[in-house]
Amino acid sequence: MAKETFTDNKRVRDLIKLMADNGLTEVELVEDKSSIRLKRDPAPVAPMAGTSPGASAVAAVAPAVAPSSPPPPAASEKPETAGPSIKSPMVGTFYSASGPDSPAFVKVGSHVDKDTVVCIIEAMKVFNEIKAETTGTIAKILVQNGQGVEFNQPLFLLKAD
To answer: d(Cα 107, Cα 75) in Å, to the nearest integer?
Structure first.
């Protein structure tokens, strides 16, 4: 039986699905003497007419030329950085509670200290509790439950105590 290689289309499609399911923009896999690195723009890419779904997924993951500047934020996506904030320590999916029927860890007006769990970020099927690591009161929640987040993206704005 032949040894499976990274050039196996199913393997590449599985990695692309892993990226899409977890909101990842980059993944690198190294096994023995083989490695593969997939990277995509964080902006969603619509499939091109006349291409198969697999081809459009590969095109979305590995564009030939990276854009020279990021697209301007939409009106509803204004960067909010005034005042202290709690930022995402990783790329993943933001969850405000430990389960669908559980109350949110924090809400606007909640007081937090350095050990307060404020959310969970799922990355690669691992649920990571995120602590405030600062003291203050939640002034605004900047992301929605189930939304993909990037490294160092502000999640909460705080009012200093």
So the answer is: 24
**Contact assessment for residue 155 and residue 88, using Cβ atoms and an 8 Å cutoff:** yes
Q: Which long-range contacts (CB under 8 A, 24 or more apart) does 62-69 make?
A: 62/38, 66/41, 67/41
Give the pLDDT confidence of 83-96 residue by residue, as tens digits: 799 999 999 999 99
- Considering the domain architecture, whether residues 43 and 91 belong to the same structural domain is answered as no
pTM strictly above 0.70: no
Domain encompassing residue 44: 9-61
Sign of CA dihedral 87, 91, 94, 95: negative
Domain count, the chain: 2
